[in-house]
Design a protein that fits this description.
By secondary structure, the chain is mainly beta. The protein has a domain at 18-87: Thrombin, subunit H (Beta Barrel), CATH 2.40.10.220. It has one helix spanning 92-102, and strands at 18-28, 32-41, 45-48, 59-64, 68-78, 81-86. A six-stranded antiparallel beta barrel has the order 1-2-3-6-5-4. Strand 2 (32-41) and strand 3 form a beta hairpin. The longest helix is centred in the last third of the chain and has 11 residues, at 92-102. It is globular.
Amino acid sequence: MANGAQLSVTDQRRASRHPVDFPVIGEHRSRGDVPMNIINVSAQGFMIDNGGDLGKGERVTIRLPEVGHIEAHVIWTSAERAGFQFERIVRLDEFQKMIDAIQPNPRLRRSR
């Protein structure tokens, strides 16, 4: 049996990322609520800067504006940072609305 997450979306780490500073509560199966701070996000996933105790393959469910609840899997960890991949790709219209909600500074948003 293979270890780690079996993901339905392809690994697209080169996807366009948007810088944010957005606190969320991750719902972890065994740890319960886990406070996380998202520092960048794409339609395929996100990175946090306070994930030192999460391991590769672990799952969390978070709630994002416009997207709602979405599950994500830890793809990599490095010191305090961790990268997550969503269990599904976020639709472009939802993603743009989400960015508008969590990144209020228009100078930091990517052009559309």
